[in-house]
Amino acid sequence: MNRWARTRGVGGSGHDGPVKILSIQSSVAYGHVGNSAAVFPLQRLGHEVWPVLTVHFSNHTGYGAWRGPLLAPADVAEVIEGIADRGVLGTADAVLSGYQGDPAMGAVILDAVDRIRAANPDAVYCCDPVMGDTGRGMFVRPGIPEYLRDVVVPRADIITPNHFELDFLAGRTTTTLTEVLDAVDVVRATGPRDVLVTSVLHGDVPDGSLEVVAVSDGGAWAVTTPLLPISPNGGGDVTAALYLAHLRTTGSPATALERTIASVFTVLERTLAAGTREIQLVAAQDAIADPPARFTARKLR
């Protein structure tokens, strides 16, 4: 169980000023996934980001072909140790992680989380438990989903699973909003206090729409958006980064939900209009830096 999350949730405790975020994720030269999707939006919001790369590929793997190195966990640990050498690792306010393809890499991330929490008990860990999606099933190596469920997620303060991933983490299939909320409660009982569930589809969602649900100690909220005919890589990475940032700065899950989804939906709209495979982060940067008032979160409980 997350020893910090049991005594405090992120919601309700806004952070004054810029947030310092250690973001341990993949990187691509072309396009926007992992840190290449998370760092720029966080910087546009005025936050300080320390990107630590787990891979550096030419492009994301969705193209079917790519080049570049997969960094060894020991090399990633060395980079983090170098940050510690500067005497600043303990000043981080948050750790952000996405795809974890190897338990050894997960151990490096969790070690960094522990070291930062030891120096700054108010620091939080936001984990996007990337493992699969509806229609695709699991797309990570065997054993990784169980590792995320049993080892990583319980140590996180904030998690951002999609609906498919939530069902796996909770060990059940959910088809109604009540079942979704019950599943979130099951997962929250293992450690993380703030949960953002994306791509939620249940019996009461209107045709052509989907929902995003945020749950914290203070309640549960949902935003309903049109379902765009697009599913590019990197959208989840942007969502996790923005939700972490807005939750830390506002202390309000409802506000963080509204701002995050307004920005991400605008990015997806721009991507659809441009007809590109890569998300249009740069073109939509104004909607990231100043999220438009597009969606209103409704309180579920």
Outline the fold blueprint.
Layout: E1 20-28, H1 35-44, E2 48-57, H2 73-85, E3 94-97, H3 103-119, E4 124-127, E5 132-133, E6 137-138, H4 144-152, E7 158-159, H5 163-170, H6 177-188, E8 194-200, E9 209-216, E10 219-226, H7 235-250, H8 253-274, H9 285-289, E11 298-299
Parallel strand pairs: 1-2, 1-3, 3-4, 4-7, 7-8
Antiparallel strand pairs: 5-6, 8-9, 9-10, 10-11
Helix pairs in contact: 1-7, 2-3, 5-6, 7-8
Question: Would you write up a description of this structure?
Answer:
- This protein has 301 residues and is an alpha/beta fold.
- The chain has one domain: UDP-N-acetylmuramoyl-L-alanine:D-glutamate ligase (3-Layer(aba) Sandwich), CATH 3.40.1190.
- The strands form two sheets. A nine-stranded mixed β-sheet has the order 2-1-3-4-7-8-9-10-11, with helices on both faces.
- Helix 2 runs parallel beside helix 3 and helix 7 packs antiparallel against helix 8.
- It is globular, with a radius of gyration of 18 Å.
- The N terminus is likely disordered.
- GO terms for molecular function: ATP binding; pyridoxal kinase activity.
- One of its GO terms (biological process) is pyridoxal 5'-phosphate salvage.
- Keywords: ATP-binding, Kinase, Nucleotide-binding, Transferase.
- This is pyridoxal kinase.
